[in-house]
């Protein structure tokens, strides 16, 4: 049996296959793919707190140069596609799982904020549909920001119900193509502009599971601005108009909050 699990907006191949009665997921990336390398790094260094609890797929084979990895199939349905997307219990479990990931190690990086600001400015310099006046306001705000040292932890990078599975009431995690060392609060970004915005009870449950709230106002605001710019720019580049509109809404919201 072979089943296509790929996402049309990314130039990669994701297949579920069966062999000798076992099920696997095979991922293959193209020449420009960077996701496989990040996935392999996550599997080798950061996923034990999840795999030891059967809450993430176990790596069977990986070849960074060939941009290929094979994992054991993890049963479940995407939380996004089930009623669990509105269930606080699922978000509490997701908070608990994220806390396990983040607690493994910390690194202090003096240049993180400067690098992220440069990335945001590069998005603004590239093709997008952000209004010119808004671009100038964003550039001026970024130029005025402080660049303090940041504490980095292992992060998933795309923490949201699209990358959570639920099986018999238990939440687990997939897709580590954006895993990297970042501030812990960056894994709150997608939830904050989607699920938490839709239902504050989901945020309360998530924080209850996570155990604390790492979102210091200044750094959280800067991250929200950079996320909004990146979302609008990336979605325009790949032609995802719905996601692009979310990016523009994120820009409007964060600028309105700044006054």
Automatic annotation (TrEMBL):
<dbReference type="InterPro" id="IPR002575">
    <property type="entry name" value="Aminoglycoside_PTrfase"/>
</dbReference>
<dbReference type="Pfam" id="PF01636">
    <property type="entry name" value="APH"/>
</dbReference>
<feature type="domain" description="Aminoglycoside phosphotransferase">
    <location>
        <begin position="18"/>
        <end position="216"/>
    </location>
</feature>
<dbReference type="GO" id="GO:0016740">
    <property type="term" value="F:transferase activity"/>
</dbReference>
<keyword id="KW-0808">Transferase</keyword>
<dbReference type="InterPro" id="IPR011009">
    <property type="entry name" value="Kinase-like_dom_sf"/>
</dbReference>
<protein>
    <submittedName>
        <fullName>Aminoglycoside phosphotransferase family protein</fullName>
    </submittedName>
</protein>
